[in-house]
């Protein structure tokens, strides 16, 4: 079993920055591809960013490319999402997910474990 706990969400003005963290426990973190997804009220969950388990390759949704950065620290069993130049449309609940031996997928169906999520609200 794997537990994922997100932190770092909050309220920020448009143009500001936040860094989300996702701490993992229960299995060897270094073998997980990690993803960040978000869900706004009334909308489907959508892919934000992912990082592979082996080479640390990163992938981003077009809507966040150039503004968000995903990274991982295997020594701390943690994945981060640095969010810059935030926009009101980035407002959502952000969740991290783990895909054992994954390549870093944008599909929610590839992920085996999910965190509870953290709220990010961007005011205009």
What's the count of strands? 11
Main β-sheet, in a few words?
Answer: 7 strands, mixed
Topology as H/E string? Answer: EEEEEEEEEEE
The chain-level structural class is mainly beta
Portion of residues within helices: under 10%
Tell me the radius of gyration: 13 Å
Discrete helix count: 0
Oligomer: single chain
Strand content: over 45%
**Between the first and last Cα atoms, what is the distance in angstroms?**
40 Å
**Which word captures the global form?**
globular
The averaged pLDDT comes out at 95
Poorly predicted parts: none
Can you tell me about this structure?
- The chain has strands spanning 3-7, 10-13, 18-25, 32-39, 46-51, 58-60, 68-73, 78-83, 92-100, 113-114, 118-123.
- It is mainly beta and 124 residues long.
- Strands 2, 4, 5, 6, 9, 10 and 11 form a seven-stranded mixed sheet that branches. A four-stranded antiparallel sheet has the order 1-3-8-7, with no helix packed on it.
- It is globular and about 40 Å long.
- The mean pLDDT is 95.
List the helices and strands and how they pair.
Elements: E1 3-7, E2 10-13, E3 18-25, E4 32-39, E5 46-51, E6 58-60, E7 68-73, E8 78-83, E9 92-100, E10 113-114, E11 118-123
Parallel strand pairs: 2-11
Antiparallel strand pairs: 1-3, 3-8, 4-5, 4-9, 5-6, 7-8, 9-10, 9-11
How would you briefly describe this protein structure?
This protein is mainly β and about 120 residues long.
Q: Which properties best describe this structure?
A:
51% strand; 124 residues; mainly beta; seven-stranded mixed beta sheet
């Amino acid at each position: 079993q794997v537990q994922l706990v997100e932190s770092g969400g909050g309220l920020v003005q448009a143009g500001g920055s936040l860094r989300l963290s996702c701490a993992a426990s229960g299995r060897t973190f270094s073998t997980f591809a990690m993803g960040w997804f978000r869900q706004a009220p009334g909308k489907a969950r959508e892919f934000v960013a992912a990082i592979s388990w082996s080479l640390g390759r990163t992938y981003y949704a077009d809507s966040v490319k150039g503004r968000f950065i995903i990274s991982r620290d295997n020594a701390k069993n943690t994945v981060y999402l640095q969010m810059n130049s935030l926009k009101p449309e980035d407002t959502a609940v952000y969740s991290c997910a783990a895909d054992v031996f994954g390549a870093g997928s944008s599909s929610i169906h590839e992920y085996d474990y999910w965190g509870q999520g953290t709220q990010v609200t961007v005011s205009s």
